[in-house]
Amino acid sequence: MKRTAARILLPLVLAGGFAGVAGGVASAATQEPPAASEPPAIWVVPGLDAGSLLAPTVQAPTQLLAPVVNLITPIS
């Protein structure tokens, strides 16, 4: 009975210990939202911002899916 309990409890204790060591508190720096006139930041690679080039395409998925959402909403 002791051997069975050890086989069950040992992996659970080890997994809990590893989760405690690997887990941490996530933090994020607070940042002011961009002004409405500024294009969104779209980073291609670190240091290369393509936001001004791709800004018109940011709202495209929302605009293209709006009719579909309008059809589904009354059904649900």
Describe the 3D structure:
With 76 residues, the chain is mainly alpha-helical. Helices cover 59% and strands 7% of the residues. It contains 3 helices and 2 strands, in the order αββαα. A two-stranded antiparallel sheet has the order 1-2. A hairpin with a 2-residue loop joins β1 and β2 (48-49). Residues 1-28 form the signal peptide.
Give a quick rundown of the structure.
The chain is mainly α. The protein is built from 3 helices and 2 strands, in the order αββαα. It has a two-stranded antiparallel sheet with strand order 1-2.
Key attributes of the depicted protein:
elongated, signal, 76 residues, two-stranded antiparallel sheet, mainly alpha
Indicate the topology.
Blueprint: H1 2-22, E1 43-45, E2 48-49, H2 51-58, H3 60-75
Antiparallel strand pairs: 1-2
Q: Helical proportion?
A: 55-70%
What is the H-and-E element order?
HEEHH
Task: List the total number of helices.
Answer: 3
Overall residue-averaged pLDDT value: 78
Shape assignment: elongated
* Ends distance: 54 Å
Strand order of the largest sheet: 1-2
Query: In terms of per-residue confidence, which ranges show pLDDT below 50 for 5 or more consecutive residues?
Result: none
Annotation, overall tally of beta strands: 2
Rg calculated over all Cα atoms: 25 Å
Largest sheet, if any? Answer: 2 strands, antiparallel
Helix/sheet category: mainly alpha
User: What share of the residues does DSSP label as strand, in percent?
Assistant: 5-15%
